[in-house]
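[Automated response] Your request has been received and processed.

Submitted sequence:
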Amino acid sequence: MLITTTPSVEGRRITRYCGVVCGEAILGANIFKDLFAGLRDIVGGRSASYERELQRAREIALKELESRAAEAGANAVVGVDLDYEVLGQSNGMLMVSASGTAVVIE
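Generated structure:
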């Protein structure tokens, strides 16, 4: 399945639109990641644990998007948009949502 942020696929013709599809992933951060990320804020540098969680959430959301597009009979998703939000009382959860248009390309 081809997944792209562009509205079309160069050199390929869209023959059918199957509708808008979405995929979401909501992951909670644990206390140890928060503690080490807080230390990184003090001393500087990147938080590898948060980066891994963000990457994992993005992969889950895109896999879900792909699965829903396949269920709709599509072989590609165009115009994909990724959104990131923090949720929860103490912003302890990360949400990644992916949306796009499921299409059939030749």
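Summary generated for your ticket: The beta strands are 2-3, 14-28, 76-87, 93-105. The two ends are 12 Å apart (CA to CA).
If you did not submit this request, please reply to this message.
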